[in-house]
Amino acid sequence: MLKGVKIRFEIHNILFSVYKFNRTLNNSLIKKQINKQKKEDIAFLYNVTLNSMRLHLHCLKIIDKFIKKKLRDQEKILLISAITQIVFLNFKEYAVINCSVEIAKKLNLYPGLINATLKKIAKDKNDLKKIKINFSDLPLWFQRKTRFMSEYEKKQFLENFHKEPNIHIVFKDEEKLKKFNAKILKTSMISGFLLDEKNFQEKISFINGDWWVQDFSSFLPLYNFDEINKKKVFLDACAAPGGKSFQILSKKLNVILNDKSKNRIQTLKTNLERLKLSAEIYNEDFIKFDNKKKFDVIIIDAPCSAVGTIRRNPEIFFKNKGPNFDKLLSLQENMLEKASFLLNTNGFIIYMTCSFLQIETIDQVKKFLKLNNNFVLSNFRLRENQKNYSKFIKNNFMITIPNIIFDYNIDGYFAAFLKKI
């Protein structure tokens, strides 16, 4: 099998598994493929796989222009991958078409249909790049869960959700940022967007543990938690991969790191070692924590639909099934209830999700406060940059949809500070 055909066939199999069996890219599926590849092949695999999912709705609209009959899943996915490469990634047309035809033969599809369709699309690719999708083209489950969004917010989402994410980094302290020898657009005294994202993991300062990668939206809540230096015992209930915990540890504060997943714990330990940070680590189900354990601050970055990270996790829309909201909402409620038992008086639950859906964010907090009259919603005060960041704070909730700030992409996110009185 020719190299180009082989790697594209692997990409096809990954896409098919995600679509058909609702798998995620973080599982062993893609890792098995990566272990077999050279460095440049890994970059190619990620580039095509992720962008095929990010742009699959655009690709489906293109397919509808050229094919009127109903396609089998394998045909549809093969065309999505090829169109992404030809129209949106500007790969060599003949190489993509020839490889796609060979894959069609291996899958007992119709190679003639694939060949003829892709050749027509290649001729019109400059016009097809401009294709737009509507909110009604998004998954039906998402449309139903976002009825609260304004037309402006929907327009913003459509413009941004399929774009590649930018790399936002956080430093241990101000001195580390001042000594940083690469170009950066500062977002705070200790953070910023990398202007040159290429091979960032090879930078000496990264290897030395001066900074870590953390999305701007995820970074903002703890950076603006004005009680952080007044509290003694922190718990990060779902800590891995560790960004929020590193914010606390960098201030020489005591935080216990917990995560239910053994695989994610290993990632957390690797990150701690690089950053030369240490902490007590639990590998427990937070819901089953001993109620005798008490903390001053409990961080709950709760499992959720993760729609705020759609650019990083484009499989959310690509899968043929939506999230299991009943299960997620129940888990979020149970985690908040558990935290209320483990928290000291005058302590805080910092409730966060990488979702901006009301049912997982504002509605959950309001429901919790209604059931727990010994808790109040605390103020969310910005330490700096009020002009640019105040739009993310509404009624003491921090909430963003996948958006742009300083011309850089940020995730959708939610945070609230809940104080026990």
Describe this structure as you would to a colleague.
The structure is a single chain. Helices cover 45% and strands 16% of the residues. The chain is globular. α1 (3-21) crosses α5, α1 (3-21) crosses α6 (93-106) and α13 packs parallel to α14. β11 (393-394) and β12 form a beta hairpin. Strands 5, 6, 7, 8, 9, 10, 11, 12 and 15 form a nine-stranded mixed β-sheet that branches. Strands 2-3-1-4 form a four-stranded antiparallel β-sheet. The chain has a two-stranded antiparallel ribbon with strand order 13-14. The protein has helices spanning 3-21, 28-34, 39-54, 56-66, 73-88, 93-106, 111-123, 125-128, 140-145, 151-160, 174-178, 204-207, 216-223, 243-249, 262-275, 315-318, 325-342, 362-371, 386-389, and strands at residues 168-171, 184-188, 191-194, 211-213, 233-236, 254-258, 281-282, 295-301, 343-353, 375-377, 393-394, 397-400, 403-405, 408-410, 413-420. It is of the alpha/beta class and 421 residues long.
